[in-house]
Amino acid sequence: MTGSSNFTRPSKHSPYLTDPNRLGDVIAAIQAMSTYKQYKLPFDAWSDRICGDLSQSAKWKAIFSDHPEFFRLDTGREKASLVWRRQFPKRFDTNKGRPLTAEEYLLVPDVEKSKLSRNPLQPADIKALIDTAISLHARALEQRQDKRWWLPLASGGGALIGAVIGGLLRA
Hints:
Blueprint lengths: L21 H14 L4 E3 H9 L5 H10 L4 E3 L5 E4 H4 L5 E2 L4 E2 L2 H6 L2 H4 L9 H24 L3 H21 L1
Antiparallel strand pairs: 1-3, 2-3, 4-5
Helix pairs in contact: 1-2, 1-7, 2-3
């Protein structure tokens, strides 16, 4: 990312419009966070998984914070997860690559339960999230254009006033 390291957004603007790469970043985060074996990681770990650059963790923290429609931070504000995955119970065994049944889960020692994760999302779920991000981005662009409807009128009005004043000065 080029330019300023300030990742906060103006209060009146959509977070999708703060950076020309924002939609792509949100989609990349959705893809990585929806399928990785661990559902919640620190920002630097997500940065490494998403873009291969640990030094970008502040950027990813800002993206996760700016998009609560997709991402959540933990209570300590040190880790992020995908909202959709948080809705699954923590019964996904990353070693076996599958969710545990209720009976299997009861047999897992308490010390091992902390190693369990939440189910990865299915391709249709990921597509739904990406389509939502694209739709929100398009809507933000439309709203920004709607707010500027008066600009052509103002410039046209300025030209008309200039022509009238020019005509009066010649007379």
